[in-house]
Amino acid sequence: MYTNYESPFGARYASEEMQFLFSAQKKFSTWRRLWVALARAEMKLGLPITEEQVAELEAKIDDIDFETAKEREKLVRHDVMSHVYAYGKQCPEAKGIIHLGATSCYVGDNTDVIIMRDALQVVRRKLINVLDLLGNFAEEYKDLPCLAYTHLQPAQLTTVGKRATLWANELVMDLQEVEYRIANLKLLGSKGTTGTQASFMELFEGDTDKIKEVDKMICGELGFDGVVPVSGQTYSRKVDAQVLATLSGIAQSCSKFSNDLRILQNFKEMEEPFEKNQIGSSAMPYKRNPMRSERITSLARYVMTDSLNPMFTSATQWFERTLDDSANKRISVAEGFLAIDSILNIMLNVCDGLVVYPKVIEQRVLKELPFMATENIMMTAVKKGGDRQELHEKLRVHSIAAAKVVKEEGKENDLIDRICNDKSFNLTKEEITAVLKPINFVGRSVQQVEEFISEYITPIRNENADILNEKAELSV
Predict the structure, then answer these.
(1) Is 281 a catalytic residue?
(2) For residue 277, is pLDDT > 50?
(3) Which of the four, 165, 187, 372, 421, has the lowest number of CB atoms within 10 Å?
């Protein structure tokens, strides 16, 4: 156990649910379900297959003899035929009709589509739960003013809740992409060696309607509404590229969230949950490192680069198929899903325990607010008879001087005192302080949060009430 490579996705990160979807049991039992669906369709359409043969195959769908298949593959170097052989040994009466008319991609490619659909449904569920948590957070802090940044420099004010809607909105976009992919995935069906269905033309003696019905019946049994319109031996590898691009989009959104949170934790405004017995640093006992957010960033980087794999595979498929997709595909697609599952588990954990420090946020706001409030102060002074152009220049000079005191002398921002002492403004400190209410500088942030939750988060919650309140316990 400890002398062989073990994937971190299995040992540390991905859920058992997602790992199962890419397990040998899931893969080969799905192959068998596809063989059963094919045999049943062929039987119903008149080929010499009996109900007893189909029933025999059906009884052994999940009872896979992995050792026999493994030993057979060493001999014949063909995974599909090895499993046909193992299945046939378990089902002697049906042995002769397993895989009838099909090529390897009938089970291989259709299974890949089924697994991607099932995995996307897990991703969808977890995305919805992350959005629910972020919606709660945004609602709670919709009217807590905080600094907003451009170029990572204080610009104006926003609210903590409004910023949370920025994170949530990108995940809403990702959810829409996931749902589109689920709705539009199609099975390969039974297309034969080069996609022409020539073997089925032979089996059904040229009866095109029966051949089309085979695909329709297989789709119905496996829960799809259709097959691809045309193909070579495989479904277009562009499908893999599209699905992993969708996963990459989720990674981008989560990485944006985690990077913002890491910066906010440095500012001491917010932080991710910190367990009672968690150790932040082996050398510095006081540290509270944002290790979960860092892991999101790290895994997201992997997913974004991994999404390039199927793009190159799609671009270099020759004619009706080559096999240079196989080794790459069984790694890149599986690990893309395992990584996104890992990221969403962390997102669920972090978003369920975000910590906010309002006093620190207020302190940081008040240090910058005098600069941001200069236009409001100027308008107040103009109403008392001041000259707008003259006051604008004086505010520019005072602001530069106050900034110099802060940056070069390490002292507090004294801009307000400078304005009070300048008779051109004719304002008392009380009058200026009345202007300096942070909530007056957040624009429509509060309303924007309320509108976003009402128009986007609430409908998602209402449509998915049965899958809400999911928790994620992290192993590390």
Answers:
(1) yes
(2) no
(3) 421
